[in-house]
Amino acid sequence: MQTTILICDDDPIVHESLRLYLTKEGMRLRSAFNGEDGLNIVKKEKPDLVLADVMMPQMTGLELCREIRKFSQVPIMMLTARGEEIDRILGLELGADDYIVKPFSPRELIARIKAVLRRTENHNQTETDSDATDSKKNKLINIGSLHLDLDRYTADYAGTPIEFTKKELDLLSFLCLHPNETFTREKLLEKVWGYEFGGQTRTVDTHIKQIRRKLSEFKVLFNLMTVHGIGYRIDMDKELQQ
């Protein structure tokens, strides 16, 4: 079936320029010029991916992301003309899968869209594959009182829920499953986000920052370390490794 991309942006030029590039990739586009219309299209038509501008009339992209996450895990990429860190943090914390600042390279955007779609397809295939018993072993991660459930995408510490976004939980679980191993930001983008990208890697830093903030009130039995000039790793005692 043809992939459907919903563009939510109040700028007609953005719609036309993206339509030019994305239709060449064989994708079907739907357009909304405000957040409310975008939300209605998501509910009725269930697109494969949503591109949402942060600043829109009637309902902002951040509000749209929050509303969509109440009923759907459709991949969401945030678009914005602003580069403030607060926008990135809010978008990612509300459940956006990625964040790109205007003006952006169409080639970079297409690469990200394809990677998100591949990751979603692979995840769905794994869930429906009856022979994927080995992967199911890593669906539950228990480290002391910290419990990560990748089947339900929930987390808790000794019964107290921790509200991670899907991508935060993906990143944390990946590092937990590879304890004491250092990963560059580029490698984490490839392994967790599903694409190779040699440009801006602040997305990884933003997610790490949010994970640390949410874990800070709990006595987790590992350290989420910054390896300066390289990337990140989780330091964990061998007896705690799953």
UniProtKB/TrEMBL annotation:
InterPro entries: CheY-like_superfamily, OmpR/PhoB-type_DNA-bd, Sig_transdc_resp-reg_C-effctor, Sig_transdc_resp-reg_receiver, WalR-like, WH-like_DNA-bd_sf. This is Stage 0 sporulation protein A homolog. PROSITE patterns: OMPR_PHOB (PS51755), RESPONSE_REGULATORY (PS50110). Residues 4-117 form the Response regulatory domain. May play the central regulatory role in sporulation. It may be an element of the effector pathway responsible for the activation of sporulation genes in response to nutritional stress. Spo0A may act in concert with spo0H (a sigma factor) to control the expression of some genes that are critical to the sporulation process. Keywords: DNA-binding, Phosphoprotein, Transcription, Transcription regulation, Two-component regulatory system. Residues 138-236 bind DNA. The modification 4-aspartylphosphate is found at D53. Coiled coil: none annotated. It holds the Pfam family Trans_reg_C. It comes from Amygdalobacter indicium. Residues 138-236 form the OmpR/PhoB-type domain. It comes from the Bacteria.
